[in-house]
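Sharing a chain and its predicted structure for anyone who wants a worked example. Both blocks are below, sequence first, tokens second.
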Amino acid sequence: MPSLTSLDYRIGPKYPYIEVSRNYEPDSLTECIRKAVNEYREKIADIKVVKVETNSVLSGYPAYELVYTQQIGKIRKSILKCIEAGTVVNDMKYSVNYVMDQENFQQYYDVFSIMKDSLSIYK
């Protein structure tokens, strides 16, 4: 199986980019979403928020899910579809991100779902 972190920003990812991160951010889920959307809008010119949910679960904790798209490439334009699923536990924000070109998004979505569902956060 190909590497799950290969990205070619000139034409979009050839394989999905999946990342798990942990950051100090003692905010509510709603505040995490607001900050994430603002941060993405500052960094990404062509962002379109597709879906925001606060009724998800990540490692057994209440979570949010943010889905957005972005256009990349000047000559050969490509649309990336991105998901950020996150939760706050003990004043730490944990998130799992999945980025893939929109055409092939479903091809690796199951890998992302398995990874997201297997994440364990201990208090």
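Comments welcome. The first strand starts at residue 17 and ends at 24.
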